[in-house]
Design goal:
This protein is of the alpha/beta class. The chain is 35% helix and 26% strand.
Length: 556
Amino acid sequence: MLIGIDVGGTTTDAVVVDGNAVVKTAYVPTDHDNLLNCMLMALDELVRGIDTKKIERVVLSTTLITNMIAEGKTDPVALVLIPGPGTNPKDYALGESIVLDGAIDFRGKEIDALREPQIKEAASKIRAQGKSRVAVVGKFCQRNHSHELKAGEILASALPGSRIELGHRVSGQLNFPRRAATTLLTAATKDRYAQFAADMARALKERRISAPVYILKADGGTLPLDKSVEMPVETIFSGPAASIMGVMALTEPSQTSVVVDIGGTTTDLALILSGKPLLSAKGARVGSLLTHVRAFAVKSVAIGGDSAVTVNGGSLAVGPHRDGSPLCMGGRGPTPTDALRVLGMSKIGDAVLAERAMQMVADMLGCNSKQAAQKVVDAVVDKIVLEVNEMFQEWEQEPAYRIWEIMSKEAISAQNVVGVGGGAPPLVPLVAARLGATAVVPKYAPVANAIGAAVARPTLTLNLHIDTEKGEYNVAEEGISGRVTDRKMTPDDAERMARRLLAERAARLGISEYASEAEVTYSEVFNMIRGWSTAGRLLDVRMEIPAGLLASWGRC
């Protein structure tokens, strides 16, 4: 048996999956001030009457990191940058930073040494600021770690007890501002996330659940909970990822669909092209920060079943804020959920209270309660349709989208609109009709996110860069490097090496059984000419275990 738990904006949903059957579900209200507690409440309700020895796997989808960043509850971090010539850190929107002299070039060669007195002066500034967490990031230090290592050692010696995060250990990909932002967020969230992971592991042990525990990442893959503490920002946006994996689990394979996940607080939009979710080409945007976090291309819209309905000057508005539960469920004011109840499109909540909610709106609009309810539902549908159309324009900038159009010899349109989440059954058919598309609301749509988490398999990416003239290689994701001796290395040789290194990394992360699923998604070679002959080659290979479902899962 598999367990999936998804923390949503309004409810925390949990499922037990056995084979291709959902054997039990549970729902509890989400307590944003204590996510661990609401996850455990859902778990306790779920496993009541179930032999916990039969549980083979537990997967969590949590908003912990998202909420910490959105609510400004991250730990303060001193950002130390070594940008080298030609860049101005003030342009990166990273906030206050300490800039050190020194530079590494794109090949990994030191072209300007660090100044030790300057690093010690930086330590004094950090001490004066009272910060105990430091992020050190140097441009091109993924090709040569020496500057980050030296700066980190001096800072650690001068700041006893501080926690120092080095950029090359967080991400080795090119794009210095994104690597700096990813390192900053990692340092800011690591301690609290580690505490959450430890508390969850202890709570499961107390419940005599010995099954391995995983966390769902932003790219739809799972990672062992104990390993995820080194990369907490990978878990951001795991909720939208869960909805996409849920759609993949509950619909026919290889379909092209727009995913509309309508929750209580937000609606998440995503795209699946021929069975493969569209990924953000360069990484996730976290607030104002552009990162290297691998994530699905998802847009969150601040409208859902619990959005507040207001009338100002005769004009109706739905959202973007939420004032609590719908009135029909004991809340304080009218919401789309109340409107759906009045129109007979939902059986959620008390019909009398829903009528009262819509009468409040009707009195301000000068109509009856059913007319008011219809106006509310129309406003929700209008907003979602508008956002879907705008998302298509944004999606067109993603390389995977363009490649799909070329290979398919057709332009994508909203052919299928697949709805999941509690608000999907009544609303998605209306959205699909407006888009001229086919509506698909699969069985178990309200708990699709939890199902997606339960049956998602691990993902893994490895970017290998080889410089045969220098006789060196480095792996972006781990900041590791080594020697190569073959100056005539071919792309096939590089791909074999990447596959071996990915298998080794998968073993370290405890997911070695999925290494055979890896595929090459990018391969490039550049010959370096000295005089009239080839002096060496630069080879780059990206290898991935893509998002997918466990082999044991069969669609319901």
